[in-house]
Amino acid sequence: MQNYAFNMHTLPVGSQPSYRIGVLGASGYSGRELCALILGHPQFSLHFATAHSQKGSTLRVRAAGRVHDVPLIGPDEADLAGADLVFAALPHGASAEWVAKAIAAGTRVVDLSSDLRPGHGGVTHALPDGVPHDAPYGMPELFRSSVQGARVVANPGCYATSILVALAPLAKAGLIAPGSTVSIASASGVSGAGVTPKFEYMFAEVAENFRAYGVGNSHRHLFEMRDTMQKLGSDCDLLFTPHLLAVDRGILSTITVPLSRPLTDALEPFRAAYANEPFVELTTSLPALADVQHRNVVRIGAVLPSGMRQPTLLVFSAIDNLVKGAAGQAVQNANLMLGLDEIAGLQQ
Ligand SMILES: NC(=O)c1ccc[n+]([C@@H]2O[C@H](COP(=O)([O-])OP(=O)(O)OC[C@H]3O[C@@H](n4cnc5c(N)ncnc54)[C@H](OP(=O)(O)O)[C@@H]3O)[C@@H](O)[C@H]2O)c1
Q: In angstroms, rounded to a whole number, what is the distance separating the alpha carbons of residues 235 and 256?
């Protein structure tokens, strides 16, 4: 059994780790972030960390004021049954198989891929036996009660998090004009593409550059976004254009919303909706990536543009794609699944 109990070195005096947590895909960008959050969490210990091509190597993780050397094992060697909860931070398609194995071993799972999300990222083939088709969608600000106590949760996509948290109050209040098109331009840092080397993400291709990709509504996050907007009561079309930004981490989404009625205060729909949310920040200025990097927050600003015949709202939403867009939200979900304080280990 691999229980490295790294947290033992960093715990506050008198406290003990209560939950053994495994990370599948720990050598990836989301997996590394998960390891750091687990090592800094007051009630988690890192039970195992897996890699695929990098198995057998050691991952250096900076957490709780020191650098930890974390051995990376193959997923076949992972003690799934001995973990209380497993994070699956694996590529789409590869993840569902490991989620099935973790469920069969009796372990709770937070899956970071699109395999279990609503719409399954547009993939239509069947999930392995034992994997639920309707796992709770782990966006606590919208669906907290379905995550609390759940054994399997689908962690949302990074773009979807930045966009849905911004649109949800408007959809719930009937403020999005029926039958309208909501236009979204999002820019993401390069870590959003994962750790596998690809030509288009090489330094000389990305640096000093800015471009759109996945144009024409072809991004896989549209499936979970459309499904969620329908659940929230909006029939709008989403026109989503992602862009690649030459920074390490962060997503800024600029969202143009045709309104069903005029507003006098651009932030008014968000104030009531998010008054008690620990991880949503509203700003009367505009959110920026520097405000949210390394933090588990969605930071939202809004403006009523002038010169428009139709009432329109511009919403700006910034997140760290690896934290609120991936590992941080996954820990938030794990806390809820295990009955812990939702903010435990996430106060950056
Ligand atoms: N990056 C983001 O901003 C972000 C945000 C939200 C959600 N996500 C989702 O979270 C998941 C992980 O994303 P990521 O960007 O962290 O990915 P990544 O950097 O590409 O890492 C993938 C991880 O999975 C391992 N792996 C690859 N193929 C495998 C296989 N066949 N079997 C077992 N392990 C395998 C890799 O190991 P080796 O490196 O050793 O080969 C690595 O540890 C993806 O589904 C992604 O869509 C990513």
A: 15
Tokens of 41: 């969490």
Which residues lie below 8 Å from residue 306, measured CB to CB, with a gap of 6+? none
Atom of ligand 1 nearest to the CA of 326: 6
**pLDDT score at 125:** 83
Going by the DSSP 8-state scheme, the letter that residue 306 receives in this structure is: S
Nearest atom in ligand 1 to the alpha carbon of residue 90 is 24
Residue nearest to atom 9 of ligand 1 (CA): 113
Which residue among the candidates 36, 78, 83, 158 is catalytic per the annotation? Answer: 158
- pLDDT at residue number 216: 97
Question: Is residue 1 over pLDDT 50?
Answer: no
How are the residues of the chain apportioned to helix, strand and coil, as percentages rounded to the nearest 5? 30, 25, 45
Please report the pLDDT score of residue 6 as a whole number. Answer: 46
Q: Is residue 158 annotated as part of the catalytic site, yes or no?
A: yes
Please tell me what DSSP assigns to residue 209.
Answer: -
CA distance to 62, 74, 87, 330, per residue, from 33 (Å)? 9, 19, 11, 10
Q: Which domains does the chain have, with CATH numbers?
A: 6-135 (3.40.50.720), 159-320 (3.30.360.10)
